[in-house]
Amino acid sequence: MGFHTKPTTFIGHVKVKVTDLQRAIKFYRDILGFKILEQTATTVELTTDGKTSFLSLEQPDNVIPKQGRTTGLYHFAILLPEKSDLANIVVHLVENGIRFGSSDHLVSEALYLHDPDGNEIEIYIDRDPSKWTWSGEEVEMTIDPLNFERLLTSVTPTKWRGMPENTVMGHIHLHVAEIEKTEEFFVKGLGFDVVNRFRGQALFLSSNKYHHHIGVNVWNGVGAPKPPKNSVGLVYYTLVYADEEARQQVIENLEKLGYQVTEDNYQLTTEDPSGNVIVLTV
After folding, report:
1. pLDDT at residue 141 above 70?
2. Which Gene3D superfamilies does this UniProt record tie to the protein (predicted)?
């Protein structure tokens, strides 16, 4: 489908903060089934294929718990390759006493849960794009109950054996302070298309006609403040562009709009109008 490979612009990596790294590792490794790629005293890189990392955790100095009613992470979303994978992890979560919510979004079927620090995680599968309904430039999405009876017919005898090798970071959803400037930033700056508008409170944005690579909402309140830098939540996420030319065009677009792009440790970084940090990569 090409929604998470070049030339589509997609989420490459998400880094989040936790209060207790060892407790978090136990959850992400033993419950969700990630493998450890690299680890230090304060950080860990998680992998599914043993080669690359699309999720990392950090325990900052003087870390404080997740703060409510701020901008920042709503959830990051892990995209599984097969329906049987979603069915198998349902059984696995139930067997391990992990509470989770669920939804059928028409374009996808999803589970929602929290890590021990309250960082929200979506785990989902996509329906075939041929089954997505488009009205002009907008794709139809909703929040319907997930049909577990139908889903669980896909459980396999091997059950859950950890995150499949070709799992990817499907999308990220953010709390923002307002909608208008946010839309300008993502569309005119970063080059995404709006593919769904939800009641004036949320936008869903994508590249290459995906249902969404990025969601933004004002559900924490218009004018919500940035969270403290040392609080649990999002550190940054990366956007992967097709090539250096595409990235340079985005940098020019952002600077014309008045946004800064800074270089630090060979990373090019910017912030959306609500202070969410984005690393621009190729």
Report:
1. yes
2. 2,3-Dihydroxybiphenyl 1,2-Dioxygenase, domain 1 (3.10.180.10)
In the block, residue with structure tokens 């995906």: 210
| Residue type at 257 in one-letter notation | L
Q: Is the pLDDT score of 1 beyond 70?
A: no
Distances (CA, A) of 177 to 69, 71, 107, 202, 272: 10, 6, 27, 11, 10
CB distance 79 to 126 below 8 Å:
yes
CB atoms within 10 A of CB 103: 18
Q: Provide the residue type at 157 as one letter.
A: P
- Per-residue pLDDT for 265 more than 90? no
Tokens, residue 95: 């067997």
End-to-end CA distance of the chain: 19
pLDDT tens digits for 42-56? 999 999 999 999 999
Residue 120, token pair as written in the block = 């929200």
Q: Which helix (H) or strand (E) covers residue 56, if one does?
A: strand 53-58
Q: pLDDT digit string (tens) for 55-67? A: 999 999 999 999 9
* Domains annotated on the chain, with CATH: 10-281 (3.10.180.10)
